[in-house]
Amino acid sequence: MPPPPQPQGAMATGAAILTIPCSAGRSPKRSSQRRSSASLSVRASFDANTVTLLDYGAGNVRSVRNAIRHLGFGIRDVRSPEDILAADRLVFPGVGAFGSAMDFLNSTGMADALREYIRRDRPFLGICLGLQLLFDSSEENGPVSGLGVIPGVVRRFDSSKGLIVPHIGWNALEITKETQLLQGVDGHHVYFVHSYHALPSDANRDWISSICNYGDSFVASISMGNIQAVQFHPEKSGATGLSILKNFLSAKSSGAKVTPRRKASKLAKRVIACLDVRSNDNGDLVVTKGDQYDVRDHSSSKEVRNLGKPVDLASQYYIDGADEVSFLNITGFRDFPLGDLPMLEVLRCASEKVFVPLTVGGGIRDFTDANGRYYSSLEVASEYFRSGADKISIGSDVVYAAEAFLQSGVKTGKSSLEQISRVYGNQAVVVSIDPRRVYVNSPEDVPFKTVKVSSKGPSGEEYAWYQCTVSGGRDSRPIGAYELAKAVEELGAGEILLNCIDCDGQGCGFDIDLVKMVSDAVTIPVIASSGAGAVEHFSEVFEKTNASAALAAGIFHRKEVPDPTLSSLL
Ligand code: 1PR
Protein backbone atom coordinates (compact mmCIF):
# COMPACT_ATOMS: atom_id res chain seq x y z
CA MET A 1 0.00 0.00 0.00
CA PRO A 2 1.16 3.55 -0.59
CA PRO A 3 2.78 5.11 2.46
CA PRO A 4 0.86 7.68 4.48
CA PRO A 5 0.78 11.19 3.02
CA GLN A 6 3.42 13.70 4.02
CA PRO A 7 2.52 16.93 5.82
CA GLN A 8 1.06 19.21 3.23
CA GLY A 9 2.74 22.43 4.38
CA ALA A 10 1.65 25.51 2.44
CA MET A 11 -0.38 23.45 0.01
CA ALA A 12 -3.70 24.38 1.59
CA THR A 13 -3.23 28.02 0.78
CA GLY A 14 -4.27 28.81 -2.74
CA ALA A 15 -6.06 25.49 -3.29
CA ALA A 16 -9.10 25.48 -5.55
CA ILE A 17 -11.69 22.85 -6.51
CA LEU A 18 -12.16 22.12 -10.21
CA THR A 19 -14.06 19.43 -12.06
CA ILE A 20 -12.53 18.31 -15.32
CA PRO A 21 -13.14 15.45 -17.73
CA CYS A 22 -10.71 12.54 -17.55
CA SER A 23 -9.39 11.58 -20.97
CA ALA A 24 -6.39 10.03 -22.65
CA GLY A 25 -4.11 11.30 -25.35
CA ARG A 26 -1.08 9.96 -27.20
CA SER A 27 0.41 13.43 -27.24
CA PRO A 28 -0.24 16.25 -24.82
CA LYS A 29 -1.21 18.26 -27.82
CA ARG A 30 -3.70 15.73 -29.21
CA SER A 31 -6.75 16.10 -27.03
CA SER A 32 -8.94 14.28 -29.58
CA GLN A 33 -7.60 10.84 -28.58
CA ARG A 34 -9.77 10.43 -25.53
CA ARG A 35 -10.32 7.09 -23.91
CA SER A 36 -12.51 7.98 -20.98
CA SER A 37 -15.00 10.65 -20.16
CA ALA A 38 -15.22 10.00 -16.44
CA SER A 39 -15.17 13.16 -14.36
CA LEU A 40 -12.77 13.65 -11.50
CA SER A 41 -12.94 16.24 -8.80
CA VAL A 42 -9.68 18.10 -8.69
CA ARG A 43 -8.00 20.34 -6.21
CA ALA A 44 -5.43 22.48 -7.93
CA SER A 45 -2.64 23.74 -5.74
CA PHE A 46 0.06 26.36 -5.94
CA ASP A 47 2.99 25.26 -3.85
CA ALA A 48 6.36 25.72 -5.50
CA ASN A 49 8.32 23.67 -2.97
CA THR A 50 6.23 20.53 -2.89
CA VAL A 51 6.31 17.80 -5.46
CA THR A 52 3.70 15.08 -5.82
CA LEU A 53 5.01 11.53 -5.83
CA LEU A 54 3.18 8.57 -7.33
CA ASP A 55 4.41 5.64 -5.25
CA TYR A 56 2.11 2.65 -5.66
CA GLY A 57 3.99 0.65 -3.05
CA ALA A 58 5.49 -2.01 -5.34
CA GLY A 59 9.08 -1.36 -4.42
CA ASN A 60 11.66 0.92 -2.97
CA VAL A 61 11.31 4.57 -3.90
CA ARG A 62 13.06 5.75 -0.77
CA SER A 63 16.05 6.85 -2.86
CA VAL A 64 13.83 9.13 -4.92
CA ARG A 65 12.32 10.57 -1.75
CA ASN A 66 15.75 11.12 -0.24
CA ALA A 67 17.02 12.87 -3.37
CA ILE A 68 13.97 15.15 -3.58
CA ARG A 69 14.30 16.09 0.10
CA HIS A 70 18.05 16.56 -0.28
CA LEU A 71 17.29 19.15 -2.97
CA GLY A 72 15.06 21.02 -0.51
CA PHE A 73 11.62 19.96 -1.70
CA GLY A 74 8.72 18.51 0.23
CA ILE A 75 6.75 15.50 -0.95
CA ARG A 76 3.04 14.91 -1.18
CA ASP A 77 1.99 11.32 -1.87
CA VAL A 78 -0.70 10.39 -4.35
CA ARG A 79 -3.60 8.64 -2.62
CA SER A 80 -6.19 8.91 -5.36
CA PRO A 81 -6.56 9.85 -9.04
CA GLU A 82 -7.62 13.32 -7.91
CA ASP A 83 -4.21 13.85 -6.30
CA ILE A 84 -2.59 13.26 -9.68
CA LEU A 85 -4.78 15.82 -11.36
CA ALA A 86 -4.15 18.31 -8.56
CA ALA A 87 -0.37 18.04 -8.77
CA ASP A 88 1.81 20.99 -9.71
CA ARG A 89 4.71 18.68 -10.50
CA LEU A 90 4.39 14.93 -10.57
CA VAL A 91 7.23 12.45 -10.20
CA PHE A 92 6.44 8.85 -11.15
CA PRO A 93 9.27 6.48 -10.23
CA GLY A 94 7.88 3.25 -11.66
CA VAL A 95 9.07 0.15 -9.83
CA GLY A 96 8.33 -3.55 -10.17
CA ALA A 97 6.98 -5.26 -13.26
CA PHE A 98 5.13 -3.60 -16.14
CA GLY A 99 2.06 -5.83 -15.92
CA SER A 100 1.41 -5.40 -12.22
CA ALA A 101 2.03 -1.66 -12.45
CA MET A 102 -0.59 -1.34 -15.20
CA ASP A 103 -3.01 -3.54 -13.24
CA PHE A 104 -2.68 -1.19 -10.31
CA LEU A 105 -3.01 1.97 -12.40
CA ASN A 106 -6.05 0.65 -14.29
CA SER A 107 -7.88 -0.73 -11.27
CA THR A 108 -7.49 2.48 -9.24
CA GLY A 109 -8.40 4.89 -12.04
CA MET A 110 -4.90 6.32 -11.90
CA ALA A 111 -4.15 5.30 -15.50
CA ASP A 112 -6.88 7.64 -16.74
CA ALA A 113 -5.78 10.38 -14.37
CA LEU A 114 -2.21 10.08 -15.62
CA ARG A 115 -3.30 10.25 -19.25
CA GLU A 116 -5.36 13.34 -18.49
CA TYR A 117 -2.55 14.99 -16.53
CA ILE A 118 -0.22 14.38 -19.47
CA ARG A 119 -2.78 15.52 -22.01
CA ARG A 120 -2.96 18.79 -20.11
CA ASP A 121 0.82 19.08 -20.47
CA ARG A 122 1.38 19.38 -16.71
CA PRO A 123 4.97 18.96 -15.40
CA PHE A 124 5.67 15.23 -15.27
CA LEU A 125 8.82 13.22 -14.67
CA GLY A 126 8.71 9.45 -15.15
CA ILE A 127 11.65 7.39 -13.95
CA CYS A 128 12.64 3.93 -15.21
CA LEU A 129 9.37 1.94 -15.43
CA GLY A 130 7.73 5.38 -15.25
CA LEU A 131 9.11 5.95 -18.76
CA GLN A 132 8.24 2.52 -20.12
CA LEU A 133 4.61 2.72 -18.97
CA LEU A 134 4.07 5.72 -21.26
CA PHE A 135 4.50 3.50 -24.33
CA ASP A 136 1.85 1.46 -26.14
CA SER A 137 2.88 -1.91 -24.77
CA SER A 138 5.57 -4.06 -23.22
CA GLU A 139 6.75 -7.61 -23.71
CA GLU A 140 7.25 -7.90 -19.95
CA ASN A 141 4.54 -10.17 -18.52
CA GLY A 142 2.79 -10.00 -21.79
CA PRO A 143 2.38 -8.29 -24.18
CA VAL A 144 0.65 -5.83 -21.85
CA SER A 145 -0.87 -2.52 -22.91
CA GLY A 146 0.69 0.57 -21.41
CA LEU A 147 -0.66 4.08 -21.04
CA GLY A 148 -0.44 4.56 -24.81
CA VAL A 149 0.90 8.10 -24.59
CA ILE A 150 3.93 7.38 -26.80
CA PRO A 151 3.84 5.07 -29.83
CA GLY A 152 6.12 2.07 -29.56
CA VAL A 153 6.93 -1.06 -27.64
CA VAL A 154 9.13 -2.06 -24.74
CA ARG A 155 11.30 -5.15 -25.25
CA ARG A 156 13.74 -7.23 -23.24
CA PHE A 157 17.44 -6.87 -24.01
CA ASP A 158 18.52 -9.89 -26.04
CA SER A 159 21.01 -11.95 -24.03
CA SER A 160 21.17 -14.72 -26.66
CA LYS A 161 24.31 -13.20 -28.23
CA GLY A 162 26.13 -12.87 -24.93
CA LEU A 163 24.82 -9.44 -23.90
CA ILE A 164 24.81 -9.18 -20.11
CA VAL A 165 21.27 -8.61 -18.85
CA PRO A 166 20.15 -6.66 -16.79
CA HIS A 167 21.88 -3.58 -18.15
CA ILE A 168 23.36 -2.35 -14.88
CA GLY A 169 25.76 0.51 -14.56
CA TRP A 170 26.89 3.91 -15.71
CA ASN A 171 26.27 4.56 -19.37
CA ALA A 172 26.52 7.69 -21.50
CA LEU A 173 23.59 9.61 -22.96
CA GLU A 174 23.54 10.80 -26.51
CA ILE A 175 21.32 13.82 -26.45
CA THR A 176 19.14 14.20 -29.52
CA LYS A 177 16.99 17.14 -28.43
CA GLU A 178 17.76 20.26 -26.40
CA THR A 179 15.82 20.18 -23.15
CA GLN A 180 16.16 22.02 -19.87
CA LEU A 181 16.01 18.69 -18.04
CA LEU A 182 19.25 17.44 -19.58
CA GLN A 183 21.05 20.75 -19.63
CA GLY A 184 24.74 20.25 -18.96
CA VAL A 185 24.44 16.45 -19.08
CA ASP A 186 25.64 15.63 -22.63
CA GLY A 187 28.42 13.05 -22.56
CA HIS A 188 27.95 12.31 -18.87
CA HIS A 189 27.31 8.89 -17.50
CA VAL A 190 24.13 8.14 -15.61
CA TYR A 191 23.08 5.03 -13.72
CA PHE A 192 20.85 2.46 -15.43
CA VAL A 193 19.40 -0.74 -14.06
CA HIS A 194 16.84 -2.49 -16.24
CA SER A 195 16.19 -5.56 -18.39
CA TYR A 196 13.57 -3.98 -20.67
CA HIS A 197 13.92 -0.94 -22.89
CA ALA A 198 11.80 1.22 -25.18
CA LEU A 199 12.70 0.99 -28.85
CA PRO A 200 13.24 4.16 -30.86
CA SER A 201 11.21 4.31 -34.09
CA ASP A 202 10.03 6.81 -36.70
CA ALA A 203 6.71 6.98 -34.89
CA ASN A 204 8.21 8.12 -31.57
CA ARG A 205 11.22 10.05 -32.86
CA ASP A 206 9.70 13.44 -31.90
CA TRP A 207 9.45 12.34 -28.30
CA ILE A 208 13.03 11.20 -27.83
CA SER A 209 15.43 13.58 -26.10
CA SER A 210 18.32 11.14 -25.64
CA ILE A 211 19.31 7.63 -26.56
CA CYS A 212 21.79 5.23 -25.10
CA ASN A 213 23.56 2.24 -26.56
CA TYR A 214 23.57 -1.20 -25.03
CA GLY A 215 23.60 -3.92 -27.65
CA ASP A 216 21.33 -1.62 -29.66
CA SER A 217 20.16 1.96 -29.24
CA PHE A 218 17.31 2.42 -26.83
CA VAL A 219 15.27 5.35 -25.56
CA ALA A 220 17.12 6.89 -22.60
CA SER A 221 14.78 9.85 -22.15
CA ILE A 222 11.75 11.49 -23.71
CA SER A 223 10.59 15.07 -23.68
CA MET A 224 7.53 16.79 -25.09
CA GLY A 225 6.39 20.07 -23.63
CA ASN A 226 6.31 19.56 -19.87
CA ILE A 227 6.31 15.78 -20.13
CA GLN A 228 9.70 14.26 -19.32
CA ALA A 229 10.76 10.72 -18.55
CA VAL A 230 14.09 8.99 -18.13
CA GLN A 231 15.05 5.33 -18.27
CA PHE A 232 18.01 5.87 -15.95
CA HIS A 233 17.91 6.69 -12.23
CA PRO A 234 18.73 10.37 -11.61
CA GLU A 235 18.38 9.75 -7.87
CA LYS A 236 21.29 7.27 -8.10
CA SER A 237 23.42 9.11 -10.66
CA GLY A 238 25.46 11.19 -8.26
CA ALA A 239 25.87 14.93 -8.89
CA THR A 240 24.79 14.62 -12.53
CA GLY A 241 21.56 12.91 -11.53
CA LEU A 242 20.83 15.40 -8.78
CA SER A 243 21.25 18.26 -11.27
CA ILE A 244 18.74 16.55 -13.60
CA LEU A 245 16.24 16.21 -10.78
CA LYS A 246 16.83 19.80 -9.77
CA ASN A 247 16.22 20.94 -13.35
CA PHE A 248 12.80 19.32 -13.14
CA LEU A 249 11.90 20.32 -9.59
CA SER A 250 13.02 23.90 -9.73
CA ALA A 251 11.17 25.95 -12.30
CA LYS A 252 13.74 28.69 -11.75
CA SER A 253 16.66 26.33 -12.12
CA SER A 254 19.52 27.84 -14.02
CA GLY A 255 20.51 24.40 -15.30
CA ALA A 256 24.03 25.09 -14.07
CA LYS A 257 26.78 23.25 -15.88
CA VAL A 258 28.36 20.33 -14.09
CA THR A 259 31.87 19.02 -14.56
CA PRO A 260 32.00 15.94 -16.82
CA ARG A 261 32.33 12.78 -14.78
CA ARG A 262 33.93 10.62 -17.44
CA LYS A 263 34.87 10.80 -21.08
CA ALA A 264 33.90 7.32 -22.22
CA SER A 265 30.75 6.92 -24.28
CA LYS A 266 29.80 3.35 -23.42
CA LEU A 267 28.82 1.34 -20.39
CA ALA A 268 31.55 2.07 -17.87
CA LYS A 269 33.12 -0.52 -15.65
CA ARG A 270 31.99 0.17 -12.10
CA VAL A 271 34.16 0.55 -9.03
CA ILE A 272 32.40 -0.31 -5.78
CA ALA A 273 33.56 0.66 -2.32
CA CYS A 274 32.71 -2.05 0.21
CA LEU A 275 32.26 -1.68 3.94
CA ASP A 276 32.32 -4.86 5.98
CA VAL A 277 30.32 -3.99 9.09
CA ARG A 278 29.90 -5.75 12.43
CA SER A 279 29.72 -5.01 16.14
CA ASN A 280 33.05 -4.83 17.90
CA ASP A 281 33.62 -6.24 21.39
CA ASN A 282 32.17 -3.05 22.94
CA GLY A 283 28.95 -3.49 20.99
CA ASP A 284 29.60 -0.58 18.58
CA LEU A 285 28.82 -1.09 14.93
CA VAL A 286 32.08 -0.47 13.08
CA VAL A 287 33.59 -0.86 9.65
CA THR A 288 36.13 -3.62 9.84
CA LYS A 289 38.37 -5.40 7.37
CA GLY A 290 39.89 -8.84 7.40
CA ASP A 291 42.77 -10.76 5.95
CA GLN A 292 41.29 -13.84 4.33
CA TYR A 293 38.12 -13.11 6.36
CA ASP A 294 39.89 -12.87 9.73
CA VAL A 295 38.88 -9.44 11.07
CA ARG A 296 40.61 -9.66 14.46
CA ASP A 297 43.85 -7.87 15.18
CA HIS A 298 46.92 -10.08 15.15
CA SER A 299 48.19 -8.36 18.33
CA SER A 300 47.55 -9.91 21.75
CA SER A 301 44.29 -7.95 22.17
CA LYS A 302 42.68 -9.84 19.22
CA GLU A 303 40.13 -7.04 18.94
CA VAL A 304 37.87 -6.62 15.94
CA ARG A 305 39.67 -4.09 13.70
CA ASN A 306 37.90 -0.75 13.77
CA LEU A 307 38.37 1.29 10.61
CA GLY A 308 35.73 3.91 11.20
CA LYS A 309 32.03 4.68 11.35
CA PRO A 310 29.87 3.15 8.61
CA VAL A 311 27.86 6.25 7.65
CA ASP A 312 30.89 8.57 7.69
CA LEU A 313 32.91 6.27 5.46
CA ALA A 314 30.01 5.57 3.06
CA SER A 315 29.37 9.33 2.67
CA GLN A 316 33.05 9.97 2.11
CA TYR A 317 33.32 7.30 -0.59
CA TYR A 318 30.25 8.78 -2.33
CA ILE A 319 31.79 12.26 -2.26
CA ASP A 320 35.08 10.82 -3.49
CA GLY A 321 33.36 9.31 -6.52
CA ALA A 322 32.57 5.64 -5.84
CA ASP A 323 30.13 4.28 -8.44
CA GLU A 324 28.34 2.26 -5.78
CA VAL A 325 28.63 1.58 -2.07
CA SER A 326 28.05 -1.81 -0.42
CA PHE A 327 27.51 -2.67 3.23
CA LEU A 328 28.08 -6.28 4.24
CA ASN A 329 26.79 -7.14 7.68
CA ILE A 330 29.39 -9.86 8.12
CA THR A 331 27.96 -11.43 11.25
CA GLY A 332 24.41 -11.33 9.90
CA PHE A 333 24.53 -15.10 9.44
CA ARG A 334 24.44 -15.62 13.22
CA ASP A 335 22.59 -12.51 14.43
CA PHE A 336 19.05 -11.74 13.38
CA PRO A 337 19.33 -8.68 11.12
CA LEU A 338 15.96 -7.22 12.11
CA GLY A 339 17.16 -7.31 15.69
CA ASP A 340 20.19 -5.35 14.54
CA LEU A 341 18.56 -1.96 14.69
CA PRO A 342 21.83 -0.02 14.50
CA MET A 343 22.47 -1.62 11.09
CA LEU A 344 19.06 -0.50 9.84
CA GLU A 345 19.73 2.97 11.22
CA VAL A 346 23.10 3.03 9.43
CA LEU A 347 21.30 2.22 6.22
CA ARG A 348 18.70 4.94 6.76
CA CYS A 349 21.31 7.58 7.46
CA ALA A 350 23.59 6.48 4.61
CA SER A 351 20.74 6.54 2.10
CA GLU A 352 20.12 10.20 2.92
CA LYS A 353 23.69 11.06 1.98
CA VAL A 354 24.70 8.60 -0.71
CA PHE A 355 23.17 9.20 -4.15
CA VAL A 356 24.67 6.23 -5.93
CA PRO A 357 23.36 2.66 -5.56
CA LEU A 358 23.55 1.26 -2.07
CA THR A 359 23.68 -2.51 -1.58
CA VAL A 360 23.32 -4.28 1.76
CA GLY A 361 23.93 -7.90 2.57
CA GLY A 362 24.20 -10.24 5.51
CA GLY A 363 21.71 -12.45 7.29
CA ILE A 364 18.98 -12.61 4.67
CA ARG A 365 17.20 -15.87 5.43
CA ASP A 366 14.05 -17.20 7.11
CA PHE A 367 14.24 -16.78 10.86
CA THR A 368 12.23 -17.58 13.97
CA ASP A 369 12.96 -15.30 16.92
CA ALA A 370 13.07 -16.19 20.63
CA ASN A 371 9.31 -15.55 20.93
CA GLY A 372 8.54 -18.01 18.17
CA ARG A 373 7.71 -15.27 15.66
CA TYR A 374 8.61 -16.38 12.12
CA TYR A 375 10.15 -13.90 9.70
CA SER A 376 10.54 -14.83 6.04
CA SER A 377 13.66 -13.85 4.15
CA LEU A 378 11.39 -11.63 2.07
CA GLU A 379 10.42 -9.70 5.20
CA VAL A 380 14.09 -9.28 6.12
CA ALA A 381 14.91 -8.04 2.62
CA SER A 382 11.88 -5.74 2.61
CA GLU A 383 13.11 -4.12 5.81
CA TYR A 384 16.51 -3.54 4.20
CA PHE A 385 14.81 -2.00 1.16
CA ARG A 386 12.56 0.16 3.35
CA SER A 387 15.61 1.35 5.23
CA GLY A 388 17.31 2.57 2.06
CA ALA A 389 18.92 -0.31 0.20
CA ASP A 390 18.68 -0.25 -3.59
CA LYS A 391 19.91 -3.83 -3.83
CA ILE A 392 20.26 -6.62 -1.33
CA SER A 393 22.93 -9.27 -1.35
CA ILE A 394 22.45 -12.86 -0.18
CA GLY A 395 25.29 -15.25 0.66
CA SER A 396 24.88 -18.37 2.77
CA ASP A 397 21.18 -18.96 2.22
CA VAL A 398 21.61 -19.09 -1.55
CA VAL A 399 24.30 -21.76 -1.31
CA TYR A 400 21.84 -24.16 0.34
CA ALA A 401 19.12 -23.23 -2.17
CA ALA A 402 21.45 -23.80 -5.12
CA GLU A 403 22.57 -27.18 -3.74
CA ALA A 404 18.93 -28.25 -3.44
CA PHE A 405 18.13 -26.98 -6.92
CA LEU A 406 21.07 -28.79 -8.50
CA GLN A 407 20.12 -32.00 -6.73
CA SER A 408 16.42 -31.98 -7.60
CA GLY A 409 16.48 -29.95 -10.83
CA VAL A 410 13.30 -28.29 -9.55
CA LYS A 411 12.80 -24.61 -8.88
CA THR A 412 10.49 -24.50 -5.89
CA GLY A 413 9.94 -20.76 -6.06
CA LYS A 414 10.34 -20.74 -2.29
CA SER A 415 14.01 -19.89 -1.83
CA SER A 416 14.91 -16.44 -0.57
CA LEU A 417 16.51 -15.66 -3.93
CA GLU A 418 13.46 -16.63 -5.96
CA GLN A 419 10.99 -14.86 -3.69
CA ILE A 420 12.91 -11.61 -3.40
CA SER A 421 13.71 -11.36 -7.09
CA ARG A 422 10.08 -12.09 -7.95
CA VAL A 423 8.86 -9.23 -5.77
CA TYR A 424 11.63 -6.66 -6.24
CA GLY A 425 12.98 -7.69 -9.65
CA ASN A 426 16.21 -9.61 -10.24
CA GLN A 427 18.16 -6.37 -10.75
CA ALA A 428 17.69 -5.75 -7.01
CA VAL A 429 19.20 -9.08 -5.92
CA VAL A 430 22.94 -9.72 -5.74
CA VAL A 431 24.32 -13.12 -4.82
CA SER A 432 27.54 -12.99 -2.83
CA ILE A 433 29.84 -15.99 -3.35
CA ASP A 434 32.64 -16.73 -0.84
CA PRO A 435 34.84 -19.39 -2.42
CA ARG A 436 38.21 -20.78 -1.41
CA ARG A 437 40.74 -22.15 -3.96
CA VAL A 438 41.34 -25.92 -3.83
CA TYR A 439 44.26 -27.14 -5.96
CA VAL A 440 44.03 -30.46 -7.80
CA ASN A 441 46.30 -32.29 -10.20
CA SER A 442 43.69 -33.00 -12.82
CA PRO A 443 40.13 -31.88 -13.71
CA GLU A 444 39.07 -35.52 -13.27
CA ASP A 445 39.90 -35.36 -9.57
CA VAL A 446 36.68 -33.53 -8.66
CA PRO A 447 33.09 -33.37 -9.97
CA PHE A 448 33.32 -29.56 -10.15
CA LYS A 449 34.48 -27.18 -12.87
CA THR A 450 38.22 -26.57 -12.60
CA VAL A 451 40.55 -24.03 -14.20
CA LYS A 452 44.15 -24.38 -15.27
CA VAL A 453 45.71 -21.96 -12.82
CA SER A 454 48.12 -19.17 -13.76
CA SER A 455 50.37 -20.03 -10.78
CA LYS A 456 50.80 -23.64 -9.76
CA GLY A 457 49.71 -24.89 -6.34
CA PRO A 458 52.09 -25.64 -3.43
CA SER A 459 52.73 -29.17 -4.70
CA GLY A 460 52.93 -28.20 -8.33
CA GLU A 461 49.20 -28.71 -8.99
CA GLU A 462 48.10 -27.22 -12.29
CA TYR A 463 44.37 -27.02 -11.66
CA ALA A 464 42.02 -25.64 -9.04
CA TRP A 465 38.35 -25.55 -8.26
CA TYR A 466 36.75 -22.92 -6.08
CA GLN A 467 34.82 -24.35 -3.16
CA CYS A 468 31.90 -22.30 -1.87
CA THR A 469 31.59 -21.53 1.81
CA VAL A 470 28.85 -20.25 4.12
CA SER A 471 28.79 -18.33 7.42
CA GLY A 472 31.59 -15.95 6.45
CA GLY A 473 33.94 -18.65 5.24
CA ARG A 474 33.56 -20.82 8.33
CA ASP A 475 31.94 -23.84 6.66
CA SER A 476 32.81 -25.33 3.27
CA ARG A 477 30.07 -26.78 1.06
CA PRO A 478 30.04 -29.44 -1.68
CA ILE A 479 29.52 -26.97 -4.53
CA GLY A 480 31.88 -24.96 -6.71
CA ALA A 481 31.73 -21.25 -7.55
CA TYR A 482 31.05 -22.08 -11.22
CA GLU A 483 28.15 -24.42 -10.38
CA LEU A 484 26.74 -21.93 -7.88
CA ALA A 485 26.94 -19.03 -10.34
CA LYS A 486 25.10 -20.97 -13.06
CA ALA A 487 22.44 -22.12 -10.59
CA VAL A 488 21.76 -18.67 -9.11
CA GLU A 489 21.46 -17.16 -12.57
CA GLU A 490 18.62 -19.62 -13.19
CA LEU A 491 17.06 -18.95 -9.81
CA GLY A 492 16.81 -15.21 -10.50
CA ALA A 493 19.99 -13.47 -9.36
CA GLY A 494 20.57 -10.12 -11.03
CA GLU A 495 24.29 -9.88 -10.24
CA ILE A 496 27.06 -11.94 -8.72
CA LEU A 497 29.48 -10.55 -6.14
CA LEU A 498 32.44 -12.86 -6.55
CA ASN A 499 34.74 -12.77 -3.53
CA CYS A 500 37.81 -14.94 -3.05
CA ILE A 501 38.84 -15.83 0.49
CA ASP A 502 42.46 -16.54 -0.54
CA CYS A 503 42.85 -13.02 -2.00
CA ASP A 504 40.79 -11.05 0.57
CA GLY A 505 42.87 -8.27 2.13
CA GLN A 506 46.09 -9.46 0.46
CA GLY A 507 46.46 -6.52 -1.95
CA CYS A 508 48.02 -8.79 -4.59
CA GLY A 509 45.30 -8.42 -7.21
CA PHE A 510 42.02 -10.14 -8.05
CA ASP A 511 41.94 -13.89 -8.72
CA ILE A 512 41.85 -13.58 -12.50
CA ASP A 513 41.41 -17.34 -13.04
CA LEU A 514 38.30 -17.38 -10.87
CA VAL A 515 36.79 -14.16 -12.21
CA LYS A 516 37.33 -15.24 -15.82
CA MET A 517 35.79 -18.66 -15.24
CA VAL A 518 32.64 -17.26 -13.65
CA SER A 519 32.20 -14.15 -15.79
CA ASP A 520 32.49 -16.29 -18.95
CA ALA A 521 29.87 -18.70 -17.64
CA VAL A 522 26.92 -16.38 -16.93
CA THR A 523 25.08 -13.58 -18.72
CA ILE A 524 24.38 -11.53 -15.60
CA PRO A 525 26.92 -8.95 -14.37
CA VAL A 526 29.79 -10.25 -12.26
CA ILE A 527 31.45 -8.02 -9.65
CA ALA A 528 35.07 -9.06 -9.09
CA SER A 529 36.02 -8.76 -5.43
CA SER A 530 38.96 -9.36 -3.08
CA GLY A 531 42.63 -8.53 -3.47
CA ALA A 532 42.82 -5.04 -5.00
CA GLY A 533 46.06 -3.38 -3.93
CA ALA A 534 46.78 -0.97 -6.80
CA VAL A 535 45.00 0.83 -9.62
CA GLU A 536 46.60 -1.62 -12.09
CA HIS A 537 44.71 -4.48 -10.47
CA PHE A 538 41.42 -2.91 -11.57
CA SER A 539 42.72 -2.44 -15.15
CA GLU A 540 43.91 -6.04 -15.17
CA VAL A 541 40.62 -7.58 -14.08
CA PHE A 542 38.68 -5.54 -16.64
CA GLU A 543 41.13 -6.34 -19.45
CA LYS A 544 41.41 -10.06 -18.79
CA THR A 545 37.88 -10.99 -17.73
CA ASN A 546 34.25 -10.17 -18.44
CA ALA A 547 33.71 -8.62 -15.01
CA SER A 548 31.31 -5.67 -15.13
CA ALA A 549 32.47 -4.15 -11.87
CA ALA A 550 35.22 -4.44 -9.30
CA LEU A 551 34.74 -4.15 -5.57
CA ALA A 552 37.39 -3.28 -3.04
CA ALA A 553 37.65 -2.41 0.61
CA GLY A 554 41.12 -2.23 2.16
CA ILE A 555 42.67 -0.12 -0.59
CA PHE A 556 40.10 2.62 0.13
CA HIS A 557 40.15 2.29 3.92
CA ARG A 558 43.92 2.50 3.93
CA LYS A 559 43.74 5.45 1.51
CA GLU A 560 46.20 3.81 -0.84
CA VAL A 561 44.49 5.36 -3.85
CA PRO A 562 43.40 9.00 -3.89
CA ASP A 563 39.71 8.06 -4.02
CA PRO A 564 37.42 5.50 -5.64
CA THR A 565 37.08 7.50 -8.89
CA LEU A 566 39.17 4.82 -10.43
CA SER A 567 36.98 4.19 -13.43
CA SER A 568 38.18 7.47 -14.96
CA LEU A 569 41.73 6.13 -14.76
CA LEU A 570 41.00 2.75 -16.30
O1 1PR B 1 25.97 -15.21 4.33
O2 1PR B 1 24.02 -13.92 3.56
O3 1PR B 1 24.83 -13.69 5.89
O4 1PR B 1 26.12 -12.78 3.98
C1 1PR B 1 27.28 -12.47 4.67
C2 1PR B 1 28.08 -11.52 3.82
O5 1PR B 1 29.18 -11.08 4.59
C3 1PR B 1 28.64 -12.17 2.57
O6 1PR B 1 28.53 -11.27 1.49
C4 1PR B 1 30.09 -12.42 2.88
O7 1PR B 1 30.90 -12.24 1.75
C5 1PR B 1 30.38 -11.34 3.91
N1 1PR B 1 31.37 -11.75 4.92
C6 1PR B 1 31.18 -12.65 5.89
N2 1PR B 1 32.29 -12.72 6.67
C7 1PR B 1 33.18 -11.87 6.15
C8 1PR B 1 34.52 -11.61 6.68
O8 1PR B 1 35.30 -10.86 6.09
N3 1PR B 1 34.86 -12.23 7.80
N4 1PR B 1 33.18 -10.35 4.28
C9 1PR B 1 32.60 -11.26 5.05
C10 1PR B 1 33.44 -10.59 3.08
C11 1PR B 1 34.72 -9.84 1.44
C12 1PR B 1 34.49 -8.55 0.82
C13 1PR B 1 35.71 -7.71 0.97
C14 1PR B 1 36.46 -7.95 -0.30
C15 1PR B 1 37.42 -6.87 -0.65
N5 1PR B 1 34.45 -9.75 2.82
O9 1PR B 1 33.40 -7.95 1.32
O10 1PR B 1 35.26 -6.44 1.16
O11 1PR B 1 37.17 -9.18 -0.18
O12 1PR B 1 38.42 -6.76 0.29
P1 1PR B 1 39.84 -6.19 -0.12
O13 1PR B 1 39.64 -5.19 -1.21
O14 1PR B 1 40.35 -5.53 1.12
O15 1PR B 1 40.68 -7.36 -0.54
P2 1PR B 1 25.20 -13.97 4.47
UniProtKB/TrEMBL annotation:
It catalyses: L-glutamine + H2O = L-glutamate + NH4(+); 5-[(5-phospho-1-deoxy-D-ribulos-1-ylimino)methylamino]-1-(5-phospho-beta-D-ribosyl)imidazole-4-carboxamide + L-glutamine = D-erythro-1-(imidazol-4-yl)glycerol 3-phosphate + 5-amino-1-(5-phospho-beta-D-ribosyl)imidazole-4-carboxamide + L-glutamate + H(+). Pfam families: GATase, His_biosynth. GO terms for biological process: L-histidine biosynthetic process. It comes from the Eukaryota. The active site is at C128 (for gatase activity), H233 (for gatase activity), E235 (for gatase activity), D276, D434. Pathway: Amino-acid biosynthesis; L-histidine biosynthesis; L-histidine from 5-phospho-alpha-D-ribose 1-diphosphate: step 5/9. L-glutamine binds at C128. Its EC number is 3.5.1.2. Residues 395-396, 432-434, 504-505, 530-531, 553-554 are annotated as: PRFAR binding. It is found in: Plastid, Chloroplast. Keywords: Amino-acid biosynthesis, Chloroplast, Glutamine amidotransferase, Histidine biosynthesis, Hydrolase, Lyase, Multifunctional enzyme, Plastid. It is an enzyme of class 3 (hydrolase). GO terms for cellular component: chloroplast. Its main location: plastid. In the C-terminal section; belongs to the HisA/HisF family. This is Imidazole glycerol phosphate synthase hisHF. It comes from Digitaria exilis.
